[in-house]
Amino acid sequence: ALRLAELASIAGLPEPAVQVGAALGFRTRARLAVRGRARAPKLGIFAEGTHRITDIPRCRIHHPLVNEVAAALRRAIRASGVAPYGEDSKLGQLRYAQIAVERATSRAQVVLVGNDATPDPLRSTFAALERELGSRLSGLFWNGNPGGGNAILGPLWEHVSGEEALRETIAGVDVFQPPGAFGQSNAELFEVLASRARTAVPAGARVLELFAGTGAIGLGLLGRAQSVALNEISAHGLRGLELGIAARPADERSRAEILPGDAASFADRLGSADSVIVDPPRRGLGPELVDAILAHPPAQLVYASCGLDAFLRETARWLEMKGRRAIRRA
Known about the structure:
This protein is of the alpha/beta class. It has helices at about 1-10, 65-80, 125-135, 185-200, 235-245, 250-255, 285-295, 310-330, and strands at about 30-35, 40-45, 55, 95-100, 105-115, 135-145, 155-160, 165-170, 175, 205-210, 225-230, 255-260, 275-280, 300-305. The protein starts with a helix and ends with a helix.
């Protein structure tokens, strides 16, 4: 907050508002490593700087349903006898579990990440988990990650059962999140961010959103914008965008455009937009896009950031260039 307040002071803006969310039970998304033995599985996270798992059967920051699903998965592992992954041996069939909560229905979307090129070794575990969770299961998926690296999700997917995507209502708009799409783990605070980003955009604007993800911000502008072009590079995010647009009324669908690919490749559209929204990953916009915004500054830039260092670095460059221009004009 202090660093943002300093930036606001330099830019001549009021201090930013601070939104405080719930301290416990707020995390609606979790990726848990699966280790141990089939008779005594461990689900948790790695101790800092190691690959030594810390078992967390009742994490207080997790949404209660995340803990319930983790407990059900422990029972399913014991019932099916599947071997958890071993860091040293690189053997074992179950590496990770991804759990996401659909708040409106109190159901969970679950991904089991296997150590094989096919889901066959985990079939009995899927069946046991379906018996355990029943109607509390929104969708069940297999992800294959047989490469042995540090990445949690691999390139292989299979939709085992249930719904294709989790449906989340973000500030009054339904957003669809396939299991491979990025989703915020603190849904409560992200809803505030999305609402504020939408409010900043004037009615009737031609909107360009870069790094749109599954459309949590941009879909909510279709009802009052002249047009909304949504850019995303991930195939999973693009599928979520398609589902989200399809769920809107016909007049809103006609205002939407999907721009698949790298955000920087659409830099030539910056100048024709009334409002540009960016929501990049932690590393920031990247040099090419920062240069493009400097060269062709949009009438309005709404920047939603989850990487403070990158945000401050990029805005400092824009403010420096603004100062130079002011000196030249003087």
